[in-house]
Amino acid sequence: RKRIGIMTSGGDAQGMNAAVRAIVRMALFRDCECFLIYDGYNGLISGGNKIVKAKREDVSGFLTLGGTVIGTARCAEFREKSGRQIAALNIIKSGIDSLVVIGGDGSLTGADNLRAEWHSHVEDLLDAGKISKEEAVAHDNLMIVGLVGSIDNDLATTDITIGAYSALARICEAIDALQITAFSHHRAFVVEVMGRNCGWLALSAAICTGADYVFIPEDPPKGKDWESRMCLALQNSRAAGKKTSLIIVAEGASDSELNPIKADYIESILTNRLKFDTRVTILGHVQRGGSPTFKDRLVATLQGAEAVEAILRADATTPSLIIGVLNNKITAQPLKSAIKLTKELTAEIAKKNFDKAVKLRSTTFTK
Ligand code: ATP
Fold it and tell me: What residue owns the CA closest to ligand 1's atom 17?
């Protein structure tokens, strides 16, 4: 009988609760035991009442809730091997043999580190007399399954992350509201959206709201005259009869020299050069708020169910996995290679190799 631990970690994202619910319900349906781990890696390190056996009704009402009811954290201790060893001890003492981590690239990198070190943790704990020989044998392996919960949609090996569609919906609602007031005053709005070093949210929002200009990390404006090109494009659109201007800036946007492009800077250009009445809106955490859209409920539920199936299918040779979506199909790929690819992707962005990075990133928009 499998004993599955479930936790959420890193930044919260809409749909995390739906994933937790699906895992608990599917696990119980498939005759597994499951444990809710509260407050991310902090809970795993604290143990005790932070690791609680779950009943069906413990996740009632989760499907439609935003954020994460079981809590999340940024946990510095888990970044250290010593912290991960305490987590390993609590996992073993709780009898957990499979761990599902719902989080972003940082959380899944942490999970991958725990996976890589698992045998040495078991040996150390046995040598230190903290676990018995029987416990060491029973926990010879820890199966980890990652679900990507992040509004940024920034992980390699999945087309979409849990939370990204809901954040996009929230951004579109907010921009639609801004457009009404912009129209009345013939104003320009510069809107900053989240996404860290990934432009998926900004680019998708620009398409969905009909923005005039968008800045994303993967496609920095080329040359020194980008400001003039932007001004010309905006002037042309006004000359053609448009009463408003909308510019979307991803929080990680930069020019080709990697100098950040910030909303305030765009505002100053529009105000000084074009004399546009310009306002800046930084959407901030509202993008993470509210209930998950149908897409995130669906993706999270399908992925949660697949996480349990993957655990049940696994034998001693099965690697830890990451559940994703590729070409509209739920996938289970090795966690190790997904994390490696994501690291390569981030490194390519840092080296300004944007085309390479975009190819590595498996999202709906590749160009
Ligand atoms: P989001 O994309 O929403 O920010 P995230 O999971 O990437 O989510 P992080 O703050 O990067 O968020 O990571 C969450 C937690 O995962 C960290 O606080 C830490 O406990 C753990 N973690 C991150 N990176 C590592 C690492 N390299 N090794 C071990 N643990 C890590």
Answer: 74
Amino acid at position 246, single letter: L
Neighbours of 29 (CB within 10 A): 11
Conformation bin of residue 3: beta by default, left when phi > 0, alpha when psi is -120 to 50: beta
Q: Let me know if 152 is a catalytic residue.
A: yes
In the structure encoding, which two tokens stand for residue 146, read together? 């990652």
Q: Is the ipTM of this complex over 0.90?
A: yes
CA–centroid distance, 241 to ligand 1, in Å, is 47
Which protein residue's CA is at the shortest distance from atom 3 of ligand 1?
11
pLDDT tens, position by position, 284-300: 999 998 999 999 999 99
141 Cα–ligand 1 center, Å: 23
Task: Kindly report the backbone phi and psi dihedral angles of residue 109, in degrees, each rounded to the nearest multiple of 5, phi listed first.
Answer: -65, -45
- Cα–Cα distances in angstroms (integers) from residue 276 to residues 178, 189, 215, 252, in the given order: 16, 10, 19, 25
Query: Alpha helix locations (H) across 258-319?
Result: 263-274, 294-313
- pLDDT tens by residue, 235-281: 999 999 999 999 999 999 999 888 999 999 999 999 999 999 999 99
The closest residue, in CA terms, to atom 28 on ligand 1 is 110
Residue 302 CB: number of other CB atoms within 10 A?
17
Q: How far is CA 84 from CA 70, 75, 142, 146, in A?
A: 20, 11, 13, 17
**CA–CA distance, 345 with 114 (Å, rounded to integer):** 22
Q: What is the pTM of this model?
A: 0.92
43 Cα–ligand 1 center, Å: 14
Q: How many residues does the chain have?
A: 367
Residue 181 has pLDDT above 90, yes or no: no
Mean pLDDT of 120-130: 98
Residue 30 structure tokens: 């498939």
- Among 105, 112, 152, 154, the active-site one is 152
